[in-house]
Amino acid sequence: MWRWVRQQLGFDPPHQSDTRTIYIANRFPQYGHYTPQKFIDNRIISSKYTVWNFVPKNLFEQFRRVANFYFLIIFLVQLMIDTPTSPVTSGLPLFFVITVTAIKQGYEDWLRHISDNEVNGAPVYVVRSGGLVTTRSKNIRVGDIVRVAKNEIFPADLVLLSSDRLDGSCHVTTASLDGETNLKTHVAVPETAVLQTVANLDTLIAVVECQQPEADLYRFMGRMTITQQMEEIVRPLGPESLLLRGARLKNTKEIFGVAVYTGMETKMALNYKSKSQKRSAVEKSMNTFLIIYLIILISEAIISTILKYTWQAEEKWDEPWYNQKTEHQRNSSKILKFISDFLAFLVLYNFIIPISLYVTVELQKFLGSFFIGWDLDLYHEESDEKAQVNTSDLNEELGQVEYVFTDKTGTLTENEMQFRECSINGTKYQEINGRLVSEGPTPDSSEGNLSYLTSLSHVNNLSHLAAGSSFRTSPENGTELIKEHDLFFKAVSLCHTVQISSVQTDSIGDGPWQSSFAPAQLEYYASSPDEKALVEAAARFGIVFVGNSGEIMEVKTLGKLERYKLLHILEFDPDRRRMSVIVQAPSGEKLLFVKGAESSILPECIGGEIEKTKIHVDEFALKGLRTLCMAYRQFTSKEYEEINRRLFEARTALQQREEKLAGVFQFIEKDLILLGATAVEDKLQDKVRETIEALRMAGIKVWVLTGDKHETAVSVSLSCGHFHRTMNILELLNQKSDSECAEKLGQLARRIREDHVIQHGLVVDGTSLSLALREHEKLFMDVCRHCSAVMCCRMAPLQKAKVIRLIKISPEKPITLAIGDGANDVSMIQEAHVGIGIMGKEGRQAARNSDYAIARFKFLSKLLFVHGHFYYIRIATLVQYFFYKTLYDSVYLTLYNICFTSLPILIYSLLEQHIDPHVLQNKPTLYRDISKNRQLSMKTFLYWTTLGFSHAFIFFFGSYFLIGKDTSLLGNGQMFGNWTFGTLVFTVMVITVTAKMALETHFWTWINHLVTWGSILFYFVFSLFYGGILWPFLSSQNMYFVFIQLLSSGSAWFAIILMVFTCLFLDIVKKVFDRQFHPTNIEKAQLTETNSSIKCLDSMCCFSEGETACASVGRMLERVIGRCSPSHVSRSWSASDPFYTNDRSILTLSTMDSSTC
Questions:
Q1: pLDDT score at 464
Q2: Is 1005 annotated as a binding residue?
Q3: Dihedral sign computed on CA atoms, order 360, 365, 370, 371
Q4: Active site annotation includes 216
Q5: What is the pTM of this model?
Q6: CATH of domain 122-271
Q7: Tens-place pLDDT, residues 562-613
Q8: Looking at 157, 407, 486, 1098, which residue is catalytic?
Q9: Spans of all domains in the chain
């Protein structure tokens, strides 16, 4: 039991050895004394709390806050010693704060538990006791044989045993893990591949030995020992044998695999970063301000204690006749007495620390988070998804973002490739309505108008399309033109690693080509989305790849089936940047088809329209299309024999295999004939380019972190506007050693200094990044800081988190935001200050583990520029205001911050719109005005603090001088006593701080009016009620009839009005001066017309033409203060708004009458 407890707390891991031994189907040896290793279950846990640890863990986190811990100490002091105020004054607010916060955090964690239970309770099929049984995912044990069907997600990390294919292979997609949508092929060892039924698997006796769990998705080492007929057969296991949790089975009916890693030990879970409590910059500022006020409080208590003993130095004041000491007091220790007096003063003055600030902040965050979900502009109709808030503690952090780290696949793109254009033999074509349209004259057309290549069906009787025709010709007439197209699309249909689903294909390609041709009936699975789009395009144009059986690739050309023997595949690698296939045509010719980047194909070409194609490729790239060049070469029998021999020697070499293969590939892929180029569009999500540009205008740096290939990622970066064509692109790729990486970084740093280019972009891959972060972190960061855009490719999930961590701890300490849609993005989402999940096609892992979830990347602009801006301004004002307004009867002390003055600031913090949402979104540069936590800078804090002290000075000494100690101001001739004096000060304070809040409010609704003026009214009603009755349950009632007497004095009313006006007049003068001589960009935007056709202010104050002189003066004051009334607001906006043409947000709580403008 104790071991289990230690394991749950993380102090005692279940296993300690470097390897784990797994008996398949948990058939442990029967001989000898064997103790099986203990492994964790298959539960996935993303929540923070359990039923058992919620109370202690939550209390620990809450008392880490300085204010909470301070008020706990004060409460305990009040319980232990005789203090001027009741313990209730500290204990009740503290209890309320702790309870509200616990409920909010408990509710949010409960939602995470629900998500975890959905995953852990999913049904799975497991082989047990010779049969297939259904159980829940959480019940899978290491060693269980699990059955997974087509399109299902693997519930644990499995070693593949068998599939429905005879060779034991299967295809999976790992898009939710590494962002790649390509199909990956996995294979089982031959001895288990033949065991395709439950009955056969029940006879399997085998042991898997493998390494302990690690986070690297691409690394796995192990071996399987199979016992057959009393003989042990050992087979190596590598990454190709491991099926990762979170990946999805594709193009395979079913597989059986043995669980080797389960639960939080799966590679997917190990790439999750542990859930930690995120704290916003505003909360950190609050703690700093709190410490300053604590220092002030302690100083006040020390000075007061010293002054008390100085006062009591004279005997007549030490023990006056009306306050005689007891014998115990006379004999008590002076040190203890000093400490007791110090603590008493500490309790007396502790109300300058506003505990209700935390209550109000928690309420503001919790209630304010609903506005995001209610905003219809963040609702996606197609997927029926609205924005979600998983953590409301970070609302204001949305207004402080300086770096955005985004995934590519599924976040910036729709993950859908579409064939757009191509260049064939120097002629450029565009696909329009299923037809290829040429943009220039063809050899058989002297005119420059568009000509159509509708299909190849009209040349179906041409002899040169027969299987036995020769490929090496040059076009001289119309039939030769058709042949060039035929050869080009045959290269597209054969040079790939596309897989095809087992569906009805008999009717494919028969008869003339139609627009609803093959793609609707064939389901292709490609190694990359580009390949799939190209093969589907070739099918639309009459050359259909219909599958392969063994080494035979079958293609239908206009309904006629042709079989090509696949001789060799020269795999793609980032150094060559191309792939090739060697096939044998039906006529017996040996052909090489090559596909790759233009930089790797064109230099190897000796024939074809090279210059024209190069121009076309540049034109395609300028449009943001992904380009590939196609070429071919025909081998003689002697040439092929030499190539076959070299390939065999290189592939069987035990030493320097990679280098030898690279040399052979270079020998093969030369003397090419260029066929043309393709242009494919990776469809971007709607308004991605505009959103990225807006982020850049707002001063936010955008980094793209993706697991995709370098070429793919750069192409998308160019198309989405992350990289510009005019930008100087720097590359840090394929670095092999620390010294090489350091040298390259130094070169890049020198280029940045020497190149007179305004903007630089950096491309770095995962391997080079690991080297850069290991020894050259400072130099790498220096290069990155001078780049306006950075793109990291081939990134493992934990590498993404490390990059963000590196930026977070840099000297500038910037606020970071990460956004992604897959499980591979969870680590960076949890590492960043703000994590946003896209509710996309790759599951809900990112959305579950994020702080906020949205349906599309474009919604990020409104989330930051509008909601983030508003939340930050609101809470910054709230915090400063609370320290400013922060005596008296314990009831008043308790109610002052909780009731009398809290509602106006709470409503302000929920509804305030100091500038219209459209202005904020259409002018991203306004976002810069609130960056770096400027509204809570020390300068601003000192201003509010000084303002608070100056107002307090006016309250006290104004009352003291206006109502002197010898002045009789009451109607019955009584003098003003201490309680009456204190009530006067308190009344002026309540009215002034509430009126101050009214001055800060720009956007007035009926709710603002109700709580602002209602709070003052409530104070008067409560004071009359509280002081007008003798309450039997109160031990003393010093306030009886005091407030009524105060209000009966005309002098008191004069003093109240005079002091309130004096305090606020200073504020008004400062606002006038600042707005006239030092206006901020936001204040300028408030005073600028948003539309020349509508005479309105950005502050949303509109006035009719026939205004009176008083109205003119009123308008001037409105412009100075920046305030407006919603009854004179126009929400009429032009249809050219780049983001949202109409504001359907719940933020607008009042009706708007456009006719007033």
A1: 34
A2: no
A3: positive
A4: no
A5: 0.66
A6: 2.70.150.10
A7: 889 888 888 777 677 788 999 988 888 889 999 988 878 888 898 888 888 9
A8: 407
A9: 122-271, 358-367+868-1080, 387-414+684-866, 415-439+484-501+521-682
